Amino acid sequence: MNPSFNVAVVGATGSVGETLVQILEELAFPVATLHLLASMESAGSSVMFAGRKVRVREVDSFDFGQVRLAFFAAGAAVSRSFADKARQAGCAVIDLSGALPDALALVPEANAQALHGLAQPAWVCSPSAAAVALAVTLAPLRQHLEIERIHVTACLAVSAQGREAVNELARQTAELLNARPLEPRFFDRQMAFNLLARVGEEDAQGHSVLERRLVSELRVLLGLPDVKIAVTCIQVPVFFGDSYSVSVQTRRPVDLAVVQGALDSAPSIERVEADDYPTPVGDAVGQDVVYVGRVRLGIDEPEQLNLWMTTDNVRKGAALNAVQVAQLLIKDMV
Amino acid sequence: MNPSFNVAVVGATGSVGETLVQILEELAFPVATLHLLASMESAGSSVMFAGRKVRVREVDSFDFGQVRLAFFAAGAAVSRSFADKARQAGCAVIDLSGALPDALALVPEANAQALHGLAQPAWVCSPSAAAVALAVTLAPLRQHLEIERIHVTACLAVSAQGREAVNELARQTAELLNARPLEPRFFDRQMAFNLLARVGEEDAQGHSVLERRLVSELRVLLGLPDVKIAVTCIQVPVFFGDSYSVSVQTRRPVDLAVVQGALDSAPSIERVEADDYPTPVGDAVGQDVVYVGRVRLGIDEPEQLNLWMTTDNVRKGAALNAVQVAQLLIKDMV
């Protein structure tokens, strides 16, 4: 019988944290005791796990020496405050906030081999949902394409910003349909029936933190430290499911049949073509794979591969990837 | 005093046709008599022009010999059936349907010079809204950038497909918010809170007619017949205003200050930057210019210019451009 581990989930009441707890149960992750943690405001509630209610406690007073593995899904500030405490207590850390720049970005389908020789306790991160989706899709194509440059327009669902953003899109939409004056709260302007071309703060060069993060994570995940990546992240009026318009420049002509074959044999990819294409609502929500469609060469340019992807940003893009990383990590734990 | 011309607008009851009639009035286009035409189903109604009601008549029985200039804004089938009849009657044709492949694509800000030596009567087209927006924005940059390749993800508003599409997005949204079962009618699936990654039919290579059209029109408009253009057109749950995520590869490093200066001096462009960015709802609707924001170099790649554009697809992308083309045409008419 496999050994079991005491596990902590920090941010257990958020949408990613809650999904993560569900997935631990679905995948029968070998949990001995599950500790659910949150900031003071969210502590006290309960979350179901394996048929019983687990009380959510305050992260501030938790002794990480009790657990072997901790997921941090409570946002950047909490990771910055407590992840190092967990590591010092000998606990492996899987961060989902992106706030730990020296944590190794991991997507099992792309760079599982990077775990070999990793210092213990592990200090890793589940990357941004965009990096997960792109790594899952492009990793099986690496050996068939000499990738020179990747262009991505990432159309991000509001759920990436949490439940408040989901409620705000619904509220704004209802007000507009009822011809009531719009008063934006969570977003700084109208999100309903609109596109917001910037997600988060911009740096002096005009790139957002999320765009920079995607570039650096994807280079690590694909093992292509010098690959050029152009990325624009936009917020779209979609509740769940991120979508990506992707164009890959290659050094040699692309063999479309080989690409289609590689996508079809990848376990975490579902190709939706032949008079159809994937959509966030129709395909992504609640699913464990990345849906890929509109796979085509460039117009007058065989050294270009274009495709469209969509995936559940909360599940495959965050919670599921983190648990899959944990499944790899525990192989080295006794 | 300038001469006046008898003018016909075919498709006067559609959203583009109606806007076109408004713009003829706003810009004081020298109209002697305005003939409003439509297919049998739409004929019989009236449209206001210059303070009086103009009756919409059937295009089938119209004698184009009565007019010097005809706008065709009633879709591909009507242009195919009647545009040649108009030309044979000596009437200049400005097509907005894209159905006349030998019609010269014109955007005054980009290729006004192409009118010199044009055979009479003129046989021209106002290109797709995407080609108009991109030509207006990139034309003033041509002399400063050696453009090698253009990547575009075009996020198209439903209004490009007419009033029925606008009503369908509103209806679907209301049904979903009221938790009623969704029955798609105009679109073949859920459009509300969703992204549709294909607009129109795909060819055997996987490109849509609209994507092919954008590439061929933009090459003509920019005078760059060999430029590589990668384009993905998606339908977004936005009523009015198209948006474009654009990345331009250049042969030499881009001087950002020069680009910003060129955008700022172009009369049909408004740059929205400095802690802000343009959105279809906030900026595009009802406006005559293309809004440009997020102007920035590539990450680790100075030979790349990225930007975000948004514009009123019905007005600047179609009706206004067609009238601006007409203003150029009548300079050569006596």
Chains forming the largest contact: A-B, 58 and 58 residues
Q: What is the residue-averaged pLDDT of chain A?
A: 95
Shape of chain A, please?
A: globular
Reported by name, the CATH topology of the largest domain in chain A is: Dihydrodipicolinate Reductase, domain 2
Mind summarizing the main beta sheet of chain A?
8 strands, mixed
Alpha-carbon distance between the termini of chain A?
Answer: 12 Å
Task: Enumerate the spans of chain A where pLDDT stays under 50 for 5 or more consecutive residues.
Answer: none
Rg of chain A over CA atoms, rounded to whole Å, is 20 Å
- Helices and strands of chain A, in order, run as EHEEEEHEEHEHEHHEEHEHEEH
Q: Could you explain the architecture of this structure?
A:
The structure is a homodimer of 334-residue chains. The first copy, chain A, is an alpha/beta fold and 334 residues long. Chain A has 2 domains: 5-126 and 318-331, 3-Layer(aba) Sandwich (Rossmann fold); 132-313, Dihydrodipicolinate Reductase, domain 2, CATH 3.30.360.10. Chain A contains 9 helices and 14 strands. Chain A has helices at residues 15-26, 76-88, 108-111, 129-138, 163-177, 209-222, 256-265, 280-284, 315-331, and strands at residues 5-10, 31-38, 46-49, 52-58, 69-72, 92-95, 104-105, 123-125, 147-156, 228-235, 242-250, 269-271, 290-298, 301-311. In chain A, the strands form 2 sheets. Chain A has an 8-stranded mixed beta sheet with strand order 3-4-2-1-5-6-8-7, with helices on both faces. The interface between A and B is large, with 58 and 58 residues.
